[in-house]
Sequence to fold (495 residues):
Amino acid sequence: MTTFPVERLAGVFVEVADTLVADFDVVDFLHLITARAAELVPDSAVGLMLADHQGRLRFMGASTEATRLLELFQVQNDQGPCLDCFRTGVGVVNADLHDDDTPWPQFAPRAVEAGFRSVHAVPLKLRSEVIGALNVFGRQPTRLEPADAHIVQALADVATIGLMQERAIRRSEVLAEQLQTALNSRIVVEQAKGALAQMHGVSVDDAFDLLRSHARSTGTRLSDVARRVVTDPDGVRGLSRP
Amino acid sequence: MGNPVADILREVRSEELPSDADPSTRSLRRLCQVATRLVGAQGVAVNVVATDGAPQLVAASDGVERPLDGLQQITGDGPGSEAFGTSRPVLVPDLDELDPARWPGYVAAARANGIHAVFAIPLQVGAVRLGSLELYRSAAGGLSADELTNAFSLADAAVTLLLDEHFPVEGAVTGPPASLPYRAEIFHAQGMVMMQLGVSLHEAMLRLRAHAFVNDADLADVARQVVNHQLRLDRPDDEGGSYDGPVKREGGR
Fold:
């Protein structure tokens, strides 16, 4: 039996499904998945990585855009639960970051330094192919129950479905095309975060919230707002601080 | 796991070309030759966006009929233009199955040139769009998973070559980096420099790379300093030269 509040759980899956309408934004959608996963797992931060064509894991979204969290994802191209999960296709649940015998001697101390005690990773899988991983960092030593881990996996599955949904999938090559496009969209968002941070004198983390609230209030896709910020900054001068 | 982009760049450097090849696009032309083998294509072309915004053919493998690309420049439609315009790969495994209204002029010209499948990959770094890589096949059929992976790696290699050679930075004497670094702070710094200097994102990217090259610094370190407000790049005017176009590099390898 899951320890997550059942009403909240139902709400999360309805909200996520509701996002999968025509022309939704994949960067925004994956951010939503991580934000909701972080709400379900008490006192946690959640991030999602996708593999590029070279098999390198690249950051796609997180419940908080805090720089230290991003660094933890970066480290994982060398070692870490996300990388293990991506390579094996098997989830990592309830890994203790304080464990002396940690399989990730470089990653674990940095995660502890960032305030985390435990870590979990579940794969994003399409049929037999692993395309990325969802990473949950816990600030408390509490353990994830097996039923809770299944729900986190279900959210990762929905993320995969969303990635495939953005455009109708008829051929296997569309998967690679889709990943490629999603990864580039994320870069556009990062570039726009930098431009907005400079424009408004805010941190790049806060710049992401600015982008999102502007996209929401104007009914524009997050990636489209981001692209406008970096191609026509004068056109979005009105994009105000929250 | 190896680094396919670095492998491609190594192979590109060892590829032999006829001596009459235009030196400014020699590497891209080698890349196109290498690409024909890696993706099983009869022709490969690289289109690069010119200052007026339209992609133009700058390099091609043997076997690419130039009139076809000439036509594409005139009509403005075709897979390369679409990949460039939409920032998405455009994969057409069978031109015969294509809606004839999609690229009316292009399809007829492609068929006349014996092309039955075409694949175009955008050459881009986020919102910085440089051009497109086009792969032509004389027989209909999709790319295999390996061929598609190779096509994306070739596009990465082409972006690296474009940044280092087609839009070179002054003073850059090192060989191309093994592959493009994907670190969030590099992209943040590009956006910040763009606003600081009032230049395009493309130019901001070139200026960051130039600063790293000139100071023999790691691009990620330079980017981190910019993001942490420890470094602010000078305005182009302050350096006594404008930065309004590709800079000719001399004597570079």
